[in-house]
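Much of what follows relies on a compact textual record of a protein's fold. A record is reproduced here so that you can trace the correspondence yourselves:

. . .
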Amino acid sequence: MIKKYSFFVSASIMLLLLFFASCRSARYLEEGQALVTDVDITGISPEIKENATAYISNEIKPNSRLNLTIYNLFNTRKGRYKVENRRNVGEPPHVLDSSLVELSAQQINRYLQTKGYFNALVTPQVEVKKKKAHIDFQVALGQPFRFGNIHYHADDPTIEAIYAQEVRSKSPAKTGKQFDSADLLGEREKLYEKLKERGYYDYLRQYMRVGIDTNAVAKQANLRVEIENPTDSTTHTIYQIDSVFVKVILPYGQISTRDPYLAVDTSLDMSYNDETGRFRLKPLSRYMYLRPGMRYDLKKENQSYDRLYEMNGFRNVKINHQKVGDGRLNTYYELTPRPVMANQVEGEFTFSSGMSGFNVGNTFSHRNVFGGAEQLEVKMRYGVLFDPRLAGSLANKIFNNDFQVGVNLIIPRLMTPFENSSTGTYGLPRTTFSSTLQFFQQDQTYSNRYFTNSLNYIWYTSPRSQHSLTPVSVEYRVGRLDQAFQQQLEDEGYLLYIRSNNREYFGLNAQYNYTFNAAKLLTKENFGYFRIGLESSGNLLGVLSEVLKLNMSAEGERLLFGVPYLQFAKTEIDYRWYRHLGGNKQFVLRFNGGVAVPYGNNSRLLIFEKSFFGGGMNGIRAWQARTLGPGNYNRADLPERLRLNLRNLDQLGELKLEANAEFRFRMLNNFLGAKLNGATFLDAGNIWLLRDNEITTNGTFKTNEFLSQIALGTGFGLRLDMDYFIIRLDAGLKLKDPQFAKGEQWVIKEFFNSREFKDHFYETHRPDRYNFIQYNFSVGLPF
């Protein structure tokens, strides 16, 4: 505890030192100079203000305190800044520049005009005190202009019809709506895309011109849209693809020793030259959507780019076109492959309950096994954990060993025994063959052997819909307790531990997942996200058990290859509702529920890997993972020795209900070079058993009681957005804890009497301790 407080005190002192060091930057400036310490825009709404801030010159925005402090440490001498090497370390001070202030005011004014405020007035006010400058851009918006009459004309009647039907009719720029130039830019881009998709290869965005008249009617902008023809023609030309040439080239600096002769594939009607000699045309051509005889289509060209890059076999893809006559194009695909083979070594040190160890892993990749950008991955991992409390040499102090080896073969198409209609239009289809083997040994008390083989398909039926099907997954596990250790556990009552770990089973599973709108999860839009997963095991074996004459164990379980086979069904649903509230504000509602039912051959207990748990960084964040539920279950009912050894085994469930609400907002646009976001949240839910077991009581789901067993937690989170990834710290506070009696579940009442409450809890739940606040550190958003 003392160490924790010492850390916080040290961190606070360091932050204060950084703050004061950066504040002293003004003393190093020349006479007449002033350090910009504050910039603001007043007189406009927060939504417009956030965008308008981007038009202020970066050279007159306040420095990052950390970067400026570092600069001061390395670039000052005798009370002033050094002249030489000024930009080597840190960030130089942003000094007031009146010309940049005026320029920024003009840029803000131009931005406001694009939003319909044609009479806006931006007046910069500068206040300088003790060499520190405060800049305030004061804005008088005036009344916004609205769209008035909109007239359009195209020199080409066909183009005019496309514009009227496909663009103007769906444009947000309607009469009476507040003027926004973004609506007109969207129209121009939409027309460009629609015409390029219809073969108008030569069409340019500049052919569409918009005249704006703000003088005819007060506060109204009348539009005149003109779509011109090329200067040398009376119509726009529609182009057809004449010939297609495909070339796989060597990376820069390598010289090909192969014959440059272009081979023509008559079945595909494409010319092909592979300087590497490693690729086959047929598997690549599946995702080259521009073919001879087709009309030019920008959409198909972009799809070709996307799919060829998604194959993960090419570092660079270029698609060029050459005119070869009136309305005819030759298309050239040029592909630069990535290195065929790669190897990656990873390692980490681990610490757990006073023990330490390490993990080391190696991943070998081959990116073109059969000439069609198929990817082979071979992964190996070894981990060891040492217990210093064990006697003897270092070898005798090994607490556990874990060795894993896995092989994945990823094929960029659907490998099915029948014809399928997946063309990759909306995403690259994949077939993955996987095998994994694991050996685990723990301190001569427990060993585990796990082997699995699976076949998985992924495909897309729309830009928003992803399907994943695992028609077959074969699992074989042998988990064994040392005989003497097992007898000791039986004598002490660890029946649940024995049944969970001393198991041998065979699994023949099938799984299906459907995901909707996964690509929108990081966008600021209004949308809904949905995912459903279905999984079953042992149904076919259950039907065939009589036909196959499977043997029966002493416990009444059917045996396959000498071990029982699994039978269960599981489904899980995840629905989320995202609403963008303007700027960087977002509100999210989420519901997550699932049920897993063991039946038939293993109806007594669902295996650990298929069970649900409550709490954790992506669930009900006021509880640590696997410490919530099931139902009203309270660990005080267990003997102390069981509470210690059954951790993570007695708080699992077969049914899960969970709901979350989260409000996200921007706190700082620049914090240590990243964006700092905040979030407040409310989490609710629990897990339940379908029937009580030997250890867990009061955990069974009952329709007339489950609402009173819902846990509630709230909290606040910080998210450091680094653009490529997000670092997240959430602090969850318990409000209602269902492990207590109904009149005592609102534990928030005990928050300010926490010492006495925690001491009493420890006396009845030793060695468990009660924490009102749970911290969660992770990478990525919770949902």
User: Anything to note?
Assistant: Residues 114 and 590 are 37 Å apart (CA to CA). The first strand starts at residue 35 and ends at 42.
